[in-house]
Amino acid sequence: MGKAKMTATELERMAIEEVPFAGNMGIKFVEVGEGYVVATLPYQDDFIRPGGTIAGPVMMAMADLVLWGVVMSQLGPVKLAVTTNLNINFLRRPTPGELTAVGQNLKLGQRLAIGEVSLLTGGKDGDLVAHVTGTYSVPPRS
Amino acid sequence: MGKAKMTATELERMAIEEVPFAGNMGIKFVEVGEGYVVATLPYQDDFIRPGGTIAGPVMMAMADLVLWGVVMSQLGPVKLAVTTNLNINFLRRPTPGELTAVGQNLKLGQRLAIGEVSLLTGGKDGDLVAHVTGTYSVPPRS
Amino acid sequence: MGKAKMTATELERMAIEEVPFAGNMGIKFVEVGEGYVVATLPYQDDFIRPGGTIAGPVMMAMADLVLWGVVMSQLGPVKLAVTTNLNINFLRRPTPGELTAVGQNLKLGQRLAIGEVSLLTGGKDGDLVAHVTGTYSVPPRS
Amino acid sequence: MGKAKMTATELERMAIEEVPFAGNMGIKFVEVGEGYVVATLPYQDDFIRPGGTIAGPVMMAMADLVLWGVVMSQLGPVKLAVTTNLNINFLRRPTPGELTAVGQNLKLGQRLAIGEVSLLTGGKDGDLVAHVTGTYSVPPRS
């Protein structure tokens, strides 16, 4: 794994500007390598569903942001990357608490970037609560 | 298409209680049949991405809520329905404005309910901006 | 719906040359419009699973071929179109008999073509047994 | 990882009986742990697409069979497990040659089993050519 083209701080700042709906949820990028990103989302009361579990759309928003981070970590601050497909499997009801997302690149092509995100409770080695694959369309590069 | 087991007003109230993250986004259920739901989402400034398009997570949250409505319209107010899979294809960048979602049942089984949601700008006969399929796990029925 | 860029006969011939694994399964294109394709697959004994249902991979192969037909019906005989994503929901066990697939374009862009396929038993207005969305990467056009 | 409930030989025999369309493609199970399966598919001329790449439906059939193996490795020879959803991202064109599939369990629940399959050329540590997630519906267990 090479050196990331953006730091965690740069990703967080850019997320708030570029993808504010997810960027403003409070996600922290805690590890950023080239094509590899770990983020955490502190718990907020309005994320919850009755039964004490975190709402699906919160997890989808976090996964999409982390996939975006995986792309940016490889390409640098590209403005025109957009999601074209996202598939999520919800595996277990997360307990109310911090969510961790581990994202990694599966393929970076000339047109498409495909990545994978694992969402967990209890940290990086905790319980897998959802699994996501997603595709970003990326601008042509020279 | 038979008579829906819940009205639009009942769905909206239940959404705010049961799935508040999406329920509080301002989605209005405007048509509810048995296994068929139309909803609209008035535009809000914080939904936007630079370039003037609506953020992906907003569309995913809306689609998930409409799928949930499709399930409720057939089963009545079941508390334990949870999404197990959601797949979204983003087709065109929506213009900043009201989103419309048209959801319909594909299959209601003993364990799983599968549905489809079209997201459009410019109303029900407008431009398709995203297409979603999703699965809900539903409690066993007698 | 405009005029298709290829006829059913041309699609069948090209399928056998270009995508022989699916092309040789015996699929017949029975209706071809621009971005709209109907195909049928006569029943064969080796398609079956115990319990008398048609195997999932047979349905996936048919759906992929029909999506390819939807792309070709719009672009003409393009050699470099490849599937990048396919998502299938299996809804009901098909009875052993002819399968029908109805495919339609959801979006034809400069780089990606996204389509939807309904798989049915009992003809075009029969029972929906599976639902597919898929993406093809298409060569740049002038 | 615990002891698998079926051996590679038992899986191969059952695949031919239960899921013959894929079972007869020549797939060999080469490693079977509890919730972990590695399989290989020797190259055959009719798998090919022009351009020298292996057809998508061959990869989908292999992935579905490996997911089925992952379920069986945990439950033993259950006859009523059926795929409910499969999502595949095609990443790179495989070269004509042996395919390897590495499948692992993501969650085994009371009703649903979700797994992930990586398809590679050049062996287990070779090039990732496709990534699959899939869901099986499993019979209730006591």
Radius of gyration of chain A: 14 Å
For the record, the CATH class of chain A is: Alpha Beta
Here the CATH topology of chain A equals Thiol Ester Dehydrase, Chain A
Number of individual domains of chain A: 1
Quickly count the helices of chain A: 3
User: Which overall shape of chain A is indicated by the principal axes computed on the Cα atoms?
Assistant: globular
Question: Which short descriptors sum up this protein?
Answer:
142 residues, six-stranded antiparallel β-sheet, 3 helices, homotetramer, two-stranded antiparallel ribbon, Thiol Ester Dehydrase, Chain A
What does this structure look like?
Four copies of one chain form a homotetramer. Chain A has 142 residues and is of the alpha+beta class. Chain A has one domain (8-137): Roll (Thiol Ester Dehydrase, Chain A). The first copy, chain A, contains three helices and eight strands; from the N terminus they run ααββββαββββ. Chain A has a six-stranded antiparallel β-sheet with strand order 1-2-6-7-8-5. In chain A, strand 1 and strand 2 (36-41) form a beta hairpin. Chains in contact: A-B, A-C, A-D, B-C, B-D, C-D. The interface between A and B is medium-sized, with 33 and 33 residues.
In short:
The first copy, chain A, is 25% helix and 39% strand. Chain A is of the alpha+beta class. Chain A has a six-stranded antiparallel sheet.
